[in-house]
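Task: sequence design from structure.
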C-alpha cells in the first residue's frame, strides 16, 4: 500500500493508544511470500518538539503496549489465516 504523496509504504495496520503507536507493514520475500513487520513507538514532548522513543516509561506505557501488540497480533493472524488458510501459533 502506497501513500499518496511519497514512495514510502503506509502501514497496513496502525493503532494509537494515547502516546503509544503500533504499526504493521506488509512485505514480500524473494519467494513471493508475505510477511509482516511490527513496530512500537512512544511519542513524547520535549519542550515544543514532539519526539519518538522505542523505550517505555512506567507501567501504564507497558499496559498500553501490550494491548496494542495484542491488536497487531490479531490483525496479523487474520491476514495469515486468509492467505494460508490456517494459522500456526507456534505454541
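Answer:
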Amino acid at each position: 500500500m502506497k501513500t499518496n504523496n511519497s514512495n514510502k509504504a503506509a502501514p497496513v495496520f496502525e493503532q494509537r493508544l494515547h502516546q503509544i503507536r503500533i504499526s504493521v507493514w506488509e512485505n514480500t520475500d524473494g519467494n513471493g511470500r508475505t510477511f509482516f513487520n511490527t513496530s512500537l513507538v512512544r511519542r513524547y514532548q520535549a519542550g515544543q518538539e514532539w519526539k519518538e522513543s522505542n523505550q517505555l516509561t512506567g507501567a501504564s506505557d507497558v499496559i498500553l503496549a501490550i494491548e496494542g501488540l495484542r491488536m497487531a497480533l490479531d490483525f496479523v493472524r487474520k491476514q495469515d489465516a486468509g492467505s494460508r488458510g490456517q494459522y500456526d501459533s507456534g505454541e
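DSSP finds one helix and four strands in the chain.
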